[in-house]
Amino acid sequence: MEKDIRYTTQLKKNINREFVYTFLSNFNLISTVWMLYLAYKGMSLTQIGILEGIFHITSFLMEVPTGAIADIFGRKTSRTLGRIMWVVSNITMLYGNNFYNFAIAMSLMALSYNLESGAGQALIYDSLKEIKRKNEYMKIAGKIELITQIGMISGYVLGGYIAKIKYELVFIYVIILGLIAIIQSLTFKEPKIKEEHQIKSLKAVFKNAYESLKYLKNRKDVLYLIFFIEGMFVVGTTLFFYLQNYFLSIGFNQFEIGIIMAISGLFSATMSYFSHRIEKRIGLKVILMVLPLIYSLLSFGLVSKAPYIFNILMSGIVGILFIVYNDFVNKNIPSEKRATILSMCSMVYSFYMIIIFPLFGKFADLFSFKSSFKTLSIVILIFSIINVAVNLKSKKFKYISKK
C-alpha cells in the first residue's frame, strides 16, 4: 500500500516536473536565428532548404523506431537520450564551417526531436490516466503549451538580442541549457504501463509499429486528421522560418525579428491556454473545419505592408489547432501504442517538410519571397476548402456527430 501511495505521488509530481522541463527544452535561443546563422555562414536559401530537408529525411526514417523505443524502453529514457542528442547537434552546429558539417548537425538534431516526440505527451497522458485524471489532459496540455510558448518567446527575444552581438554565443548558451535539461529529464517517474513490457527487443519495436499502423487503418477519422492537420503545421513552420529571412530583407534586424516572433508566440500561447474553453463553446467540428479556412485566408496578408500582423493572427489559430488536435488523437489511441502513433504523426509532418521546405527555398531563390508566399497561400486555401467538403460528407468520422 505504501509503495502504491509513493508511486501515485511520484506520478502526480510528473506534472510539475513537466512544466519545468518544458520551459528548459523550449527556451530555445536558436529558433529565430538558425536560418540567419546559416546564411551568415554562407549558405543560400536553397542550401538551407536542403539542410532542413535532411533534418526531416532523418526524422521521417527514425520517427516510428524511436517512438516504439519510447513505448518499449520508456518515455523517460527516450527523452533523456533526446536531450543528449540535442546538445551534441548544437556543438556540431557551433563548430561547423561547411554544408556537410551542418548536414551532420541537422541529422543529429532530428534524432533529438525523434527521441522526444510523442514521448512527453505519452508520459503525461499515461501519468494522468494512472491517477484517474485523464479528463484533465486538455487543460494541462493547454498549460504545457502556454509554458512552451513562454519558453519560446523568451528564446526569441534573448536569442535575437545575443545574435546581434555574436551568433556563436547563442549556441554556447543553448548547449548549457541543454545540459541542465538532461538533468531535469532524469527526475520523471515512468508510468507502470511501460513496466508491463517483458520483451525489450528490436523485434518488439517493429511489432508495436506494425500493430499501431493496423489500428490507424481502422480509425479513418484519426488517420485523416493526422494527414490534414500535420500538413497545416508544416505550412506554419515553413512560414515561421522563412519569414525570418524575409523580415531581414525588408529592413528588420535580428532583435526586432525576435520581438515579432515573441508576440506571435505569446498570442499562440494565449489561444492554446483557452483552447479547451473554445472547444466546449464552438465544438470540435467547427474548429477542425473553419479555423484552417480562416488560416489560409489570413496567409494572403503576409505580402501586405504589415505582414507581422497576419503572422500573429495565424499563430493564434495554430495554437488552438495544436491543443484540440492532440487531445482528440490522444483520446482515441491505446496507451501501449501512444508514443508510437504520436511519432507517426511526426513522421507525416517530416514527410511534408521534406517536400515543402526545400521547394519553398528554391522557389524564393528563383523568384521572390512574395511569390512564394502567394503560391503557398493558394495551395493551402484549396486544401482547406477540400477539408470542409470532406468533413461535411463523411459519416465515418466520430467527431462529426458531436454537438
From TrEMBL:
Q: Does the keyword 4Fe-4S apply?
A: no
Q: Which UniProt keywords apply?
A: Membrane, Transmembrane, Transmembrane helix
Q: Which Pfam families match?
A: MFS_1
- The regions listed as transmembrane in this protein's record are 20-40, 46-68, 102-125, 169-188, 222-243, 255-274, 286-303, 309-329, 341-361, 373-392
- Topology class, membrane: Multi-pass membrane protein
Signal peptide (from-to): none
Localization per record: Membrane
Where the record annotates domain Major facilitator superfamily (MFS) profile, the positions are: 1-395
Q: What is this protein called?
A: MFS transporter
